[in-house]
Structures are given as structure tokens and as C-alpha cells.
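Pasting as-is:
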Amino acid sequence: MPDPPRVTIVGGGIAGLAAAFFLREAAAQVTVLEGSPRPGGKLAVSEVAGIAVDEGAEALLTLRPEGTALIGAVGLADHLVPPGTLTARIWSRGTMHPLPRRQVMGVPADLDELAESGLLSAEGIAAARRDLNLPATERDGDVPVAAYVGGRFGQELVDRLVDPLLGGVYAGRPQELSFEATLPALARESRKHASLAGAAAALTPGAGRPAADGHGPGVFTTLARGLGTLPSALATASGATVRAGAMVRELARTPTGWRLTIGSAHAPEYAEADAVVLAIPARPASKLLGGVRGAAAAATALAEIRYASMAIVTLAYPTAAFPQPPEGSGYLVPAVDGRPVKAVTFSTTKWPHLGKGTSLSVVRCSLGRIGEEQVLHTGDRELAEIAARDLAAATGVRGTPADTRVTRWGGALPQYTVGHLDRVARIRAAVAALPGLAVCGAAYDGIGIPACIATAQAAAQQILAHLKVPDRPNGSTRSPAST
């Protein structure tokens, strides 16, 4: 019998582990090399005051099937739990305002609902209503979110509604983020309507339907013991060899495939592979491809993708420390207010199973936006104090937290700036010309877990085609739902 093909996946985050899972039927030797001390990437869970709370992503979007389908395929479907509430607010100008339900990432579908929220001034509402009477805005190529949306609704709506929502997802700024890449459904729909509010309304057809930004019933789920438990289950189900602390420093083509250099320059290790999947952020992927013949275009485009750093400060308070028990899933904060905390999640309210049997309320505070990294240079203790002060100003919580945890995610969030779709197309075209190579991860089609899984599935299909592995009759190589 011939030796089985060897596939090496560089990067052991959700995308890399998912790619390993989708390759499990290739009869190949699949190895996942993760440079950090543990696999899982931005999915991790640890205890705060004795409660297991996610350190990174804590919710899974169900509107896309890839995430829940993969969870079911690895046997964790029974562990999925729904949120207790998704009612969110915006803390703007020192006052809490309800987040309008009929909106798409801050672009309003119902201007009367927007006015009732009190989020905008009278002048801001008047500017927003002009969208209904303006002629359609022509777009010749990609544009910044702020320029396009602001041109329709005014700058105040961008500052007070669009910015906190985009900032909560990307830690980015609407002045730089791509309208086509960050709001693809709205970008497509906007070409059918003169009014941008009309386009948003077409995506949010009624109060009983979830909004396109995911704020609606049944739109989110999580695992009872945290999404951070998914990587280990995925690694086991994949059957792959997963190595942590194995940093890949060089990648080179060989006459029959690929050669990887692993570890330090003083004691390098070499591995041969018939195919390679790069499931790492854009910058390290660019460095690896920089020395590969024929990969210059991909390396250049990857190097253009910037990343934002952030931190999540998790605080546990006695519930009695709040003048009123936390309501809703949390709140967002506009950047123009100058607050270091950009978003807050009331974890034990959003996920009631976390609070069972305890008199504590757990709160997650997100800090860090692109261009505001200075606040992240402080120590853990000071960062926790900053978060606690902001939380007290917004909620009136008294005293000091019973426990704290600071998790830093350096260079964690790719910035989908203007031209992102073109950059991704250039990367994929260049990679497709290199037999036995594929890429996947958050840098391409979306930073959420389902989007990362979708890129992993596409990468696995590309490798299977290279290895000439036929589809099974039931199509199991094509969809995790069918496994």
C-alpha cells in the first residue's frame, strides 16, 4: 500500500481545527501545528469566582448553519443553550438608550423607532430622515461605511449607533471599514432601493423576525460549559495529531509538495507535507509565503490586512452590589464619548445557566479599538480598575469585585478596510495557483465562528481535490450537517 498523504495545518484555532475535522476522511496523516502553548485560538474558558466563563468568543450566531452543524457533528449538540435575553442598550452621553431592534449594524430600518430611543438629538433625527427623500447614492467600487451611511443619515447616526456596533464586532472605525465587506447583505440590498432605510427594512421585515445584525430571538447560542470547550472536542473528533508550542518559521515548495521549518533557529525541525493549510492570521501567513516561489501576490495582499488588539476584563460582583440587578444582555459605548470600555456583557443575565446556584453577577468588559492601544499597555490590575470604574459610572455598582480576570488578545481582530474583498480575491487567486496550498481563518470572509468554519471547509475541499479524494455518496465532505 502507498504511504498515506501528509497534510499539515499551520494554526490550531477554530479554523485550523475545523479544517482538520473536514479532512478526517481523506485517509491522510493530518498534523496541526500551533505556535502558542495551547490550541483553540480565541476560544478559551476559565473560572472567575468559581464560574466557568469564556475568555474570548462567548456566543455563536445561529443564522449561519456552519457553527451549530459542526457542534452537532462532534457530538455537542445537547450542550447548546439559548440566551436568556438579547435586549441590548447603548450608553451614550451618560444615559442608557435601548438599541433599536429594526436596524442592520446600526443602519436604521425604522426611523420612528430610532427617534423614540432618544439616542440622537432632534437635529440628528432630522438629518437621518433625509435619507427617505434623497436620490439613490451611486457607488463606484468600495466605500467606507462612515462616508456612505453618513451621507445618507448624517454623522451623528454614524457616531452614536453605527460606530458602537461595528466597534463591538471589529474593534474598528467606520471611517476605515469597508461597506461591502462588513455589511455585505445591506450592500447588495442597497442597490435595489433609493433609500438606505428601505434597504435595511427589506432585511428586517418585521418585529417578529430577527434583525440582520443578529439581535433577535433564537439568533445566538453557546455551549453550557463555554465555547472554549469546543476546540478540544474538535481536535479529538478530527483524529489529527495536534501539537502546541510548534511555531512554523519557514515554508518552502519541494518537487513533491512542501517543506516546513519548525521551532527555533538554534534547533530547527523539518517536516515534509503533500499539502499545507495556513490557518493563521494574515501577517504571519504573509511572512511564511514571502519566501515561496510564486506566492508574492498573496504575501503582499496578506500584509495589507491590519489587526486590532483588545482585552476582555471579566468582573464578578455580588448581585446585591448593583442598585438594580443587571438588565438585558449588556450595552455598547460610542467611541466619541471617550470611554475606555467599548462594550459590556452581563454574562450571568445573558446566559442564566452561569448564574445558577450563585449570588454573583459576572460582567465582561471589552476594551481596545484600533488606534487606541495605549489603554492596553497598562498592567492587569490597573486595567481591571479602569473597567470597574467605567462599569460603576454606567450601572452604579458599588464596592470592589469579588474576583477579576484580564484576558489580552493582541492583534486579534482583522480590519476589513476599504478594498478588503479585492485583497481577498487576490490572495485566493495566488494561492489557487500553488498546488497543495489553502488558506482559511478570520482574515477573509468574516470574523465570527461560523464564517471561520466555512473558510475551513472550503480549504479542506481544496486540499481534498488536490489529493484526488472523491466525495462520498452522502456528500459528507461538503457539509458538516451531513456527517
